[in-house]
Design brief:
The protein is an all-alpha fold. The protein is built from 14 helices and no strands.
Length: about 350
């Protein structure tokens, strides 16, 4: 009996280790169900908690007067955001002789990575994909870091500019929100540029300095990429991703309040509450986004009840609706033999 229990425990440990590994080939049907249930529990719990603060009755009262014409726009914007990400990530992958992945397979790659199918972040999921396409561990990690840097290199300045515009217009946001972007982005950029300029003089060893060097190497590679003609496609694709995803949020808020907030308000609110993409957050940000985004929009002078319901609909559009295509895409990736196409 003890031997049988020990064997079962070892099997359970192996299954849990595979589930937490984040590797796309280790995801089972049971693991997908477990991840979806865990994400649903986190998201529902966060929405209930924020709804209690806003007033559950007041939130449900908004259901009597909704403008359904905005829902197709919100869903269409989610589709466009995926297209933008596909274009950006394909160009990042083919940098420095990397694989040229066919668009169809890249689409499956991105859609599956955006799904809430593994407990760890989608970037871990991506590393397994890139390794199966012929890249080394270091090259795969660099591609992931370059993508993350490209994301923030576009969103952070946009939020800073939007905050400046709102300050000039004397927009009544919560006092700390706008100055934090106006001060934080230039300060962070100055520190990063200084480290990049002096990186050859930085210590090469140590728990702190090794990750710093990896970050700076990925930043230099990203800057090299965007200076090339095809780098414009990567930057354009990522800009399209951000713009479309923010537009989807705006459409979901308009679904509730019958009008779209100003673009600058949406950008700052979105960046404040959801600065990390679904791809870089565990379980695609389930729970975290539902908890933070309503308050971020409320800090931008939006009624909390409207923000709670708008964010709920937004997450249905950009997280739960694409879940079925994500499962199909993942199954396709698991069954297909990875092919490294011709060099870039």
């Amino acid at each position: 009996m003890e031997r049988e229990l020990g064997t079962r425990w070892e099997r359970t440990r192996a299954l849990l280790a595979a589930w937490f590994s984040g590797h796309y080939r280790e995801v089972t049907s049971g693991g997908m169900v477990a991840a979806a249930l865990l994400g649903a529990g986190l998201a529902l719990g966060a929405l209930i908690a924020v709804g209690l603060v806003a007033g559950i009755r007041d939130v449900f009262g908004l259901l009597d007067d909704l403008d359904w014409t905005w829902i197709p726009i919100a869903v269409g914007a989610v589709v466009v955001s995926h297209i933008g990400y596909i274009l950006a990530y394909r160009e990042v992958g083919r940098m420095r002789g990397g694989p040229v992945v066919p668009l169809g397979r890249m689409g499956a790659f991105v859609v599956a990575g955006f799904g809430m199918l593994v407990p760890r972040a989608g970037f871990t999921f991506d590393q397994g994909i890139w390794r199966d396409h012929g890249l080394t561990d270091d090259q795969a990690r660099d591609r992931v870091m370059m993508t993350g840097l490209l994301e923030y290199a576009l969103l952070a300045p946009a939020a800073c500019i939007a905050a400046i515009v709102l300050i000039m217009e004397h927009y009544p946001a919560t006092q700390e929100v706008l100055p934090s972007w106006i001060i934080g982005v230039p300060l962070g950029a100055a520190i990063t540029i200084s480290l990049l300029v002096w990186r050859d003089r930085l210590p090469a060893k140590g728990r702190i300095w090794r990750p710093v060097h990896r970050f700076l190497d990925a930043l230099a590679a990203m800057l090299e990429m965007v200076r090339r003609p095809r780098g414009a496609l990567a930057a354009g694709g990522m800009a399209l991703y951000w713009a479309a995803d923010i537009a989807s949020l705006g459409a979901c808020i308009a679904f509730v309040q019958h009008s779209v907030p100003p673009a600058a308000v949406l950008i700052v609110g979105y960046a404040t509450g959801y600065a990390l993409t679904r791809r870089s957050l565990p379980l695609a940000g389930a729970g975290a986004a539902e908890a933070l985004m309503p308050f971020a929009m409320h800090w931008m002078n939006m009624a909390l009840t409207v923000a709670v319901l708008g964010v709920c609909i937004y997450r249905l559009c950009n997280l739960w609706l694409p879940l079925a295509p994500a499962i199909v895409s993942l199954r396709h990736l698991q069954g297909a033999i990875p092919r490294s196409a011709s060099p870039a």
